[in-house]
Amino acid sequence: MALLFHSTNGQSPAINLREALLAGQAPDRGLYFPEKFPQLTPAEIAAFAALPYHEIAFRVLSKFTDGIIPADVLATMCREAYTFRVPLEKIHGNVHLMRLDQGPTASFKDFAAQMMSRMFGRFLAEDGKQLTILTATSGDTGAAVAHAFHKIPGIRVIVLFPIAEVSVSQRKLMTTLKDNVRTVAIDGKFDDCQAMVKRAFADPALAHIALSSANSINIGRLLPQSVYYFYAASRLAKNGEPIVFSIPSGNFGDMMGAVVAREMGLPVKKIIASVNENDAFPKFLATGVYEKISPSRNSLSNAMNVGHPSNLARLVAVYGGQMDETGKISRQPDLAKMRRDIFSTSISDARTVAGVRDFWNRFQLLLEPHGSVAWQGFQDWLATEPLGDAPAVIVETANPAKFPEEVEKVVGWPPDVPENMLVALRLPEDFDRMDADYETFKNYLLAKHS
Ligand SMILES: *Cc1c(COP(=O)(O)O)cnc(C)c1O
Q1: Domain range enclosing 393
Q2: What are the angstrom distances between the C-alpha of 129 and each of 57, 77, 138?
Q3: Is residue 424 part of a domain?
Q4: Which of 217, 259, 304 for a ligand 1 pocket mutation test, highest count of atoms within 8 Å of Cβ?
Q5: Given Cys at both, which of 47, 226, 322, 394 links 331, Cβ 3.0 to 4.6 Å?
Q6: Span from the CA of 249 to the centroid of ligand 1 (angstroms)
C-alpha cells in the first residue's frame, strides 16, 4: 500500500503521492502532508556516510515513492537530478556552511525543482495528459522551476513574479527561457502574486484547465528538501550525534525539509528558523498568537519576504495543531515541544549586512543576504544554549552572484558569476507585464488556454 497524504485542513480525502503532486493544493485549500512519516533506522542513516548525494536521495525518497515509482526509475531520476556538488565548508570547529547554490539556477530551489519536474514528466507521460504549472515566485522558485520544467513534454509553465522585488540576475534566469515557459511581471508584491495563483486554483471558471503548482505548497517540493539534511549529517555527524541546522526561512519549505528529516529519524538537536523582518513565526513561537504580516515587509533577503508562510500549516500539524490557509488556528500545536525542537529569530537588514561583512572578515567566506540571516540566527541561538560538541550547519541558499550589488557594497568587489548564470545574463529577455489584478490574470490564463 502506498503512503497516503492528507490535507492540513482535514476536509479532503487522503490520496497518494502521485495524486498529491499533480494536485498541488488540496480541494479544501489545505496542504498535503504524509499521514505518518516513514522511518529510517539508525543503521540505515549510518550507512549514508559512505554514499554519494544521489544515492542518499534515492534511499530517502524511495520511502515515499514506494508503490508509485519503480525503484530503478527513481534511482535514475536521482542520478540525473543531482549532478552538482553540495559543498560543506568549514567555518570554525564543528560549524559548517552548507552551500545549496551549485545547481542550474544557483539557489537551493534547484534541489526540489529538479526532482519534481522528473516526477511530473513521468506521471504525465503515463497518463498522456497536459498540465499547466502555475507558480508565484519571490525570485528563486521561478527560475528553478522554469529551468527544471523547460521543454518537458506535456507541461506549460507560467511564472508570476513581483517586478520590483527580484534582482536582475534572478529575473534573467527565468525570462530568458522560452518554449513552454512564460513569465509574467506583476506590479505588486510577492504576496499579491501568491494570492492570484491561489485564487486561480480555486476558481470554477478555470476548472477546465489542468493546473498544478510548483510552489512550496506542493508536497513534491518538500520531500526532496529533506535529503540535504541527511547528507550534511552523514558527513558531519558520523556517530549519529544530534545536529543543529540554521535555515534562512521565508515560506518555511526548506525548514520543513529539516522537520521531515527529523520525523523520519534523523537525530537533530535544534532547528533554527532564521527569518528577516517578516517575523510572524518567531512571534508566534514566543507568544502562541499568530498574526500574519500584511503587506509583507521588503528586506535584503528578498526571497524571504513572506508575510504569511504557507508551510506553517504543515509545521503546526506536525505538533498536533491545525492552522488553515488564512493563518487561523483552530487547534493550538504543542508549543512547549515546538520550542524545545525549534528556535526562531528575526534578523534586521542592518544585521544582515553586518553578517556578510563579519563572515568575510573573520573566515574569508562569502555569504549573500539569505545565508547571512542564517548565520546571524545561529548567533542568536548560541546566546540561549551552548552548542557543546554538536555539529552545526549554516544553510546558504543562494549563490552570492545572485546579489552582486549587496555583496560588492560590503566586501568591495563583485562575486564571481558561475558559468550557467553568465549564459542567462547574455540571452534576450521576454516576459509579459500586468497589474496585481485577478480579473486581468484570469483572462490572460483563459486566452493562453483557448
Ligand atoms: C526561497 C528561498 C528562501 C526561503 O525558503 P523557504 O523554503 O521559502 O523558507 C531562502 N533563500 C533563498 C535564496 C530562497 O530562494
Answers
A1: 86-107+221-411
A2: 27, 20, 29
A3: no
A4: 304
A5: 322
A6: 6
